[in-house]
Design a protein that fits this description.
alpha+beta; ten-stranded mixed sheet
Length: 380
Amino acid sequence: MKNFKSKFVFTAAFLAAGILLNSAAVYAEELITFPAETEYTQETSEPDTDLQSFTDPLENTAENISEESTEPTSEDTAAEATDEDSSVDPTEAPTEEEDTSIALDNYDVFEAVKVKRSIMNSEENYTNGQMKTLLKFLAKQKAIQERYVYYDTQGYGMEKYTNETDLDPDPAFPGSIYKFRPALLSREGYIHSGWMYQGQIYTSTSKFPMPEHDVYVTPQWIKSIKVTFFGGDFEDFTGAQSYTYTSTESITYYLPGSDKITRKGYTITGWQSSLDGSIYSPNEKIKLPDDDITFTAIWAPASYNVTMFANNGKLLDKYDIKVTCGENFIIPECTFEKEGYEFSYWKYDGNKYLPGDSLTIPALLNGEKIIISAVWKKVS
């Protein structure tokens, strides 16, 4: 008989505990709808909400439930009914510019019951300002634990960082979206391109979902190379003879035309590589090597148009002849007419030229033109 009573009491207690756990879970689901994905970005500023506001109305904590009887009292039932009938409007919760959310499905149901419904917006997502406060609250209740991102500098220079502590271990909550520190380490011959974690490269603009464990990152390096463009051994440059810039290996690059290095009367027709002697066209798309490289300009005389202008009062009476810089241009006969006048000679740059004379085509700058005009004398 004693064994029967013991088994009966144990069974009743077990059933009562099961009912209580199920009720708490239902109560939590009625209070809070947890989003499926995490999109929270940590803020640097402290939210205005006081942590005390989370704990004041929270009477059914895990500790209180564990200390109370396994059977709900009439007072508890009445309080629960009152809470269900209350007209709490989620839209009256504090709002922020950006709504973000967190998934808490894996946390203890009793910890979830502690979270006030008023911290959710009309879409039942946590607002950005309340998110940090909630995380701190849950951390205080040991529902979640703060983790850290550790930066391994590999001993390279930090002179580009504002403070020596910029790469100290950085705390982050699991489930939050973490943004890595800028990649500013210094290493001779290399460019710090980002932070490596589990085979993937992250930059300061990456959005990294913080896992439930510490994260250790190492710098990702790209070899830097010097690319030099050299105009050659001439003395008639109108600007710089050469220029050099720093790039990275294996990137795609378009070679320049004649806009960077210029010579009066000449144009660049190609660039010769210092590595293998290959010649590339201006504006050609190439892949840079993994070593320093120099491209030397290949020049050719510039081409111009010589305009033969009638100068007879008719602006459209003219024609062009294609020439190149340095060419000996033979002055043509005049085929134009001007009523009451006869052709006398051609004039260019203050000089007189007769048909059959030779003119050496000068070197011109961009925008300069060669216009040879007819000069007329009145017929008596």
